[in-house]
Specification:
CATH superfamily of one domain: Trypsin-like serine proteases
Distance between the termini: 31 Å
CATH architecture of one domain: Beta Barrel
Number of strands: 13
Mean pLDDT: 78
CATH class of one domain: Mainly Beta
CATH topology of one domain: Thrombin, subunit H
Largest sheet: 6 strands, antiparallel, barrel
Low-confidence stretches: 1-11, 28-33
Structural class: mainly beta
Length: 268
């Protein structure tokens, strides 16, 4: 058994959020278009499964919490450290989900506030293939970090042999709301990312999976968006839409939730 650390969490490999132990910064591994990702390249990416079948993606926030989309539901387990859906492999960790907390104002018609937290029954062990992503505290921090490269990762709409990686461009909301783009659908709680000419879209990633952006200011990756929805797949001017993580301060919400529960249970 692994030795226990603080709060019973095992002492494991932890370099800090948004670090990739098996990879360097994106400047050394630039990928344009869809390619198979190197094993362990996105250690915060998880597969959310129902009856052992992949249904959505998610991002590791810490040992016990996963960030995903509110429209992903009926979840039984989370698989971290996974590269291939057809072969679990020695780096994978399987955890049952204790509960799913959807945003209280999630709208299934407009996909507004399409974000959810998943609490695991048992903590993940951080390894070279399982690591947390950094989170954004607010929109000011989002601006200050000056993100240089953004990627969408996951297994896509087809069961591929391994996880896929796509480099995407962040597209400003005004452009994305033009009549021939998304015609005013994109709110301040959403991020538009892809390419004007098409070819890269949310169907190449996973609903609930991460839009990961790299900051040269800190040398770390941050969860910029949660894959939400789009129109068809890879069409010109129909870039994928993501829930904007900086609008939700997910880490603060977890802390507030746990404090509230401890107060109710008389633990504080």
């Amino acid at each position: 058994a692994s030795p226990s650390g603080l709060w019973g969490v095992p002492f494991t490999v932890f370099l800090g959020c948004g670090e990739r132990p098996v990879m360097g910064p994106p400047s050394g591994s630039r990928v344009v278009g869809g390619h198979f990702a190197v094993k362990g390249a996105w250690p915060w990416q998880v597969s959310i499964q129902w009856m052992s079948s992949h249904i959505c993606g998610g991002s590791i926030l810490n040992h016990l919490w996963i960030l995903s989309a509110a429209h992903c539901y009926s979840t039984l387990q989370v698989v971290a450290g996974l590269h291939s859906l057809s072969k679990i492999g020695s780096t994978a960790q399987i955890r049952s989900v204790e509960r799913i907390i959807k945003h209280e104002d999630y709208d299934e018609t407009s996909f507004e506030n399409d974000i959810a937290l998943l609490q695991l029954q048992h903590p993940l062990f951080f390894t070279t293939h399982v690591q947390p992503v950094c989170t954004l505290r607010n929109e000011r921090e989002e601006r200050d970090l000056s993100f240089s490269s953004c990627f969408v990762s996951g297994w896509g709409s087809t069961v591929f042999k391994g996880s896929l990686l796509h480099k995407v461009e962040l597209i400003d909301t005004e452009t994305c709301n033009q009549q021939d783009w998304h015609s005013g659908h994109v709110s301040d709680n959403m991020v538009c990312a892809g390419r004007e000419r098409g070819g890269t879209d949310t169907c190449q990633g996973d609903s609930g999976g991460p839009l990961s952006c790299y900051s040269e200011v800190t040398g770390r990756f941050y969860i910029y968006g949660v894959t939400s929805h789009g129109e068809d797949c890879g069409l010109p001017k129909k870039s994928g839409l993501y829930t904007r993580a900086s609008r939700y301060s997910v880490t603060s919400n977890i802390i507030s939730l746990l404090l509230e529960e401890n107060l109710q249970n008389g633990n504080i």
